[in-house]
Design a protein that fits this description.
Length: 199
């Protein structure tokens, strides 16, 4: 009788796995429950193509925000390279925008940002490089994005910010951490599937 115990146990185990496997798959593909960490209010900036851009232009889109500047000799090139990779990796995600806001608007005019955007092969329909009034940008970084910023362009955060279709901040991600970037990519895909308003 003992010689049948192992085969019977194996059959039971396989049947149990098959029975519960769909629920496991559902758990793996279920939307990530991301917190709401604040709301991006009104702003008025100018794109690399000279267009006036406000928060209403991003309504209905999931977007990844960052603060950089073109003369940066520190982390900005790395951040922009990471954003370029995300642009390529997430090209199939509908209604996704990438938004890079300069901390050096006195130098980074729309023309300078356009050249910079082309250097990183930006899709101008999906990736916005924004400039404007310096004090407005500092205020936007501090009050809306809840990130450090100052008069010196180097005083900016290196984190990416994930914003949903209703302009709610849903996450912060370390641009220098591969695991954090991977999580951002997964969260973008999950968030893009959310159809109900966030609370």
């Amino acid at each position: 009788m003992k010689k049948y115990i192992f085969p019977i146990f194996t059959i039971v185990a396989v049947v149990g796995y098959l029975k519960f496997r769909p629920s496991l798959i559902e758990q793996e593909t279920a939307p990530v429950n991301l917190p709401s960490l604040g709301t991006i209010g009104e702003f008025s900036l100018q794109s690399q193509q000279g267009e006036s851009i406000g928060v209403q232009h991003l309504d209905g889109n999931v977007w990844i925000g960052s603060f950089i500047f073109t003369r940066c000799q520190g982390p900005c090139p790395m951040m922009t390279q990471k954003m370029a990779r995300l642009q390529k990796e997430l090209a199939g995600v509908p209604n996704l925008k990438h938004v890079s806001i300069t901390m050096d608007p006195e130098h980074d005019t729309s023309e300078v940002l356009l050249e910079y955007a082309n250097k990183y092969h930006a899709d101008h329909d999906r990736w916005l490089f924004l400039t404007g009034n310096k004090q407005d940008i500092i205020k936007l970084a501090i009050e809306a994005f809840k990130l450090p910023a100052g008069e010196d362009p180097d005083m900016h955060s290196t984190r990416f910010v994930l914003v949903d279709q209703q302009q709610k901040i849903r996450g912060y991600y370390d641009s220098g951490d591969p695991e954090s970037i991977s999580k951002l990519s997964n969260d973008v895909k999950s968030l893009s599937q959310e159809n109900k308003p966030n609370v």
